[in-house]
Amino acid sequence: MTEVNKTSEKSLSPISEKKLSRRDFFRKTAVYSAGAIAAANVLSPVRLRADDPAIVEEAEWGTKLGDPVTKNLYGVPSPFEHNNTRRTTDLLSSGDAYASVSMCPIHESEGIITPNGLFFCRDHGGTAHVDPNKFRLMIHGKVKREVVLTLDDLKRYPSESRIYFIECPANGSTGWRGPQFNNLQFMKGMMSCAQWTGVMLKTVLDDIGLEDDAVWMLSEGSDNAGNPRTIPVEKALDDAMLVWAQNGEALRPEQGYPLRLLVPGWEGNLNTKWLKRLEFSDKPWHAKEETSKYTMLQKSGKAIQYFWPNEVNSVITSPCPEKPWTNLKKGDLVEIEGLAWSGHGTIKNVDISFDGGDNWVEASLKGLVLPKAWTRFSYIFKWEGKPMFLSSRAVDDSGNVQPTIDQETSAVGVESIYHRNPIVTWKVSANGEVNNVHIRKHHA
Ligand SMILES: Nc1nc2c(c(=O)[nH]1)N[C@H]1C(S)=C(S)[C@@H](COP(=O)(O)O)O[C@H]1N2
Ligand SMILES: [Mo]
């Protein structure tokens, strides 16, 4: 262990070593890097030798000048990353490319932020290209002052930046009765997570004034589909936002440029893109128009009409069918990683099972742990080449526990395809291959 620390100290910060006493150095770094130091040393056994041509010989790109700095005034990923893209499949689209979805490559995602070019895209009438100069937001109905706002008007309000996921409630619906995709991207890629910047809806509503009897809010987009959706005013005043930026730049057209409604943690479909209108009412709309979507039919034959928050959920992203362990040798230490999220609040803990849910160990949460945001979990595991059933189970701070398939079925029946959040299990074979399987049994 002393050896390990010495090496790390040298390689991590020769400058700090000079300036600080050895004790100070460890005090300063231990808080965030002790785990990383240990892990880095055990996880990276020396496998390559110093006669490796890739380290000995001069690389072709080092022998000539690179591109001029003026070449890519808006940067693009390295061509070597060409596989890291959104993807779609006919099995998931409604038959055409306009009312369809392209899925986020969550198996390639790092940390908790989805790059803007990879954020999943779910359109009902194609991606609209809105001229920001012609953009207007009308707020009307049960408000004291009906207004039509420009983008500049909105940007004059004090802004907030917050990290939230968006998940379509149909995420995972394709495979919950039985495995359909052997591919994490198609299984769970109808979600992404970004840092959003905009104004809290409450700030705008406090400014223009809500009538006392305003109970419902309808949002509508200016695209071909419009996507009219209603939410209760409580949610609008709680944490809903009007956002114009995503990860530090203007929203992408696919995410509703120039303005979308953000309804943190709740069903993706409520997050109206290309926003044009907010209307407040004292009655629900479903009496007047068909705006109440995604009801959840139960075993009894009765439907749950309002089912807004996305359930507590998790999935192991490494390994997964696209990221198998076929390159591992027996005895290798490997990091199991995954994503957990809950529309009800903050992820409290994530457990991992190696035997299909009979026994569980606690994973560690990694990096930022924020409400209604992706939360990354990690577990260092010694691979012995033994086949296993690998699962994750998330718990949030509202006390929700991710159910087994059987638990979920007994709670909400089998009819609805929305809000499916049962535990996902990977069958890891002796050769490291990973396959999507279903384990239904009740777990202790
Ligand atoms: N105006 C408009 N808003 C919309 C939609 C749409 O088709 N039109 N699709 C909704 C659905 S069903 C989802 S899941 C989310 C997806 O957001 P994203 O495309 O930014 O990932 O947007 C929602 N907002
Ligand atoms: Mo959706």
TrEMBL record:
<dbReference type="GO" id="GO:0006790">
    <property type="term" value="P:sulfur compound metabolic process"/>
</dbReference>
<dbReference type="InterPro" id="IPR005066">
    <property type="entry name" value="MoCF_OxRdtse_dimer"/>
</dbReference>
<dbReference type="Pfam" id="PF00174">
    <property type="entry name" value="Oxidored_molyb"/>
</dbReference>
<dbReference type="InterPro" id="IPR030835">
    <property type="entry name" value="Sulfite_DH_SoxC"/>
</dbReference>
<keyword id="KW-0560">Oxidoreductase</keyword>
<dbReference type="GO" id="GO:0043546">
    <property type="term" value="F:molybdopterin cofactor binding"/>
</dbReference>
<dbReference type="InterPro" id="IPR006311">
    <property type="entry name" value="TAT_signal"/>
</dbReference>
<dbReference type="GO" id="GO:0030151">
    <property type="term" value="F:molybdenum ion binding"/>
</dbReference>
<keyword id="KW-0479">Metal-binding</keyword>
<dbReference type="Pfam" id="PF03404">
    <property type="entry name" value="Mo-co_dimer"/>
</dbReference>
<dbReference type="InterPro" id="IPR036374">
    <property type="entry name" value="OxRdtase_Mopterin-bd_sf"/>
</dbReference>
<feature type="domain" description="Oxidoreductase molybdopterin-binding">
    <location>
        <begin position="124"/>
        <end position="285"/>
    </location>
</feature>
<protein>
    <submittedName>
        <fullName>Sulfite dehydrogenase</fullName>
    </submittedName>
</protein>
<dbReference type="GO" id="GO:0008482">
    <property type="term" value="F:sulfite oxidase activity"/>
</dbReference>
<keyword id="KW-0500">Molybdenum</keyword>
<dbReference type="InterPro" id="IPR008335">
    <property type="entry name" value="Mopterin_OxRdtase_euk"/>
</dbReference>
<dbReference type="InterPro" id="IPR000572">
    <property type="entry name" value="OxRdtase_Mopterin-bd_dom"/>
</dbReference>
<dbReference type="GO" id="GO:0020037">
    <property type="term" value="F:heme binding"/>
</dbReference>
<dbReference type="InterPro" id="IPR014756">
    <property type="entry name" value="Ig_E-set"/>
</dbReference>
<feature type="domain" description="Moybdenum cofactor oxidoreductase dimerisation">
    <location>
        <begin position="311"/>
        <end position="423"/>
    </location>
</feature>
